[in-house]
């Protein structure tokens, strides 16, 4: 695992535990030599995470659309900062550069990015690990809802297994380091066409 894409809030949240977790996870990534790819912001958990990686001697690649740069939320102290024309281009670049994906606490944007990358995995567009860093039970209700979608017959158990849930950053990174992609489903395998 050389590069992780982390989705997280552009707000800090009300509970200081979220910022503490972002600092701890950023420090862990920096110390382990894992490069961070993220949304390029200097605000909220995003800024806290990036600053912690940098302070621990790590590298950070930020990817941000021009519209957010215009609102002065770009982090200008990163190892690399890529400015894109759109959110779609931003998300595609983040996915291309990452060896895996982690969602920390965040709002609608974080949830949208998480479910998009899970959908891409379901469709076989990537075969990289996805995990939730479930800080202070933040994702408990979401995980319960996804489990409900399986019980209701809208999500296959195989697709529920596309993401793992961890309360500890070290355990999450260790799991990703041991991760092996599932075989490509026959209906997606185009190697013989």
Strand order in the sheet with the most strands: 4-3-2-1-5-6-7
Overall spatial form: globular
Under CATH, the topology is which?
Answer: Rossmann fold
**Tell me, what is the CATH class?**
Alpha Beta
Helix content: 40-55%
Structure commentary:
This protein is of the alpha/beta class and 193 residues long. The protein has one domain (3-88, 97-134, 157-177): Rossmann fold (3-Layer(aba) Sandwich), CATH 3.40.50. The protein is built from eight helices and seven strands, in the order E-H-E-H-E-H-E-H-E-H-E-H-H-E-H. A seven-stranded parallel beta sheet has the order 4-3-2-1-5-6-7, with helices on both faces. Helix 1 (16-32) runs parallel beside helix 2. The radius of gyration is 16 Å and the shape is globular. The relative contact order is 0.15.
């Amino acid at each position: 695992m050389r590069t992780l894409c982390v989705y997280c809030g552009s707000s800090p949240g009300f509970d200081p535990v979220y910022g503490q977790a972002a600092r701890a996870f950023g420090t862990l990534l920096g110390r382990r030599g894992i490069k961070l790819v993220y949304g390029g912001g200097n605000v909220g958990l995003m800024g806290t995470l990036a600053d912690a990686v940098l302070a621990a001697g790590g590298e950070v690649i930020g990817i941000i659309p021009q519209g957010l740069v215009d609102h002065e939320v770009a982090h200008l102290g990163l190892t690399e900062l890529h400015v894109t024309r759109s959110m779609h281009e931003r998300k595609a670049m983040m996915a291309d550069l990452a060896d895996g994906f982690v969602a920390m606490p965040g709002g609608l944007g974080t949830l949208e990015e998480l479910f998009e990358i899970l959908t891409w995995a379901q469709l076989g567009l990537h075969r990289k690990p996805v995990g939730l860093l479930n800080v202070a039970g933040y994702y408990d209700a979401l995980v319960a809802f996804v489990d409900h979608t399986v019980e209701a017959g809208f999500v296959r158990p195989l697709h529920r297994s596309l993401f793992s849930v961890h309360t500890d950053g070290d355990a999450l990174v260790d799991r990703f380091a041991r991760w092996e992609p599932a075989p490509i489903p026959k209906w997606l395998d185009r190697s013989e066409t």
